[in-house]
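Researcher: Please predict.
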Amino acid sequence: MQTILLGPGKTHGKPVGYFPIPVGNWYIFPVSFFTVNKNGEGHYYNGMNLDNQVADGLDKDWGDVTESALASALSYITTGNFRSASGDNTVYQQSVTLKASNSALDVTNFKGAVDTRRLK
């Protein structure tokens, strides 16, 4: 099956997973599995590249076919071409407000499985 990725930027990457293991009052999360496809491909620690860069339309409701990312996906499914903002071949440019909102949502203060900052 062909997979197409679209969104505001490259994915973050996480080809591993874990299951919580209780230890007393704590849980540990050792890496328990590594995901790969049928070809053994799965080393996407630095994320995966997009087939189409398009803004996340935070200004629209879920399922609104005019939302930029959904419109681009539906266009690709029906025509084989990604949508652009003006209907021509120009690259979609997101508004300053949407860009700021996406940036605010993407801020992560903690990257890991167990947050111990409050314990120090």
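Model: The mean pLDDT is 79.
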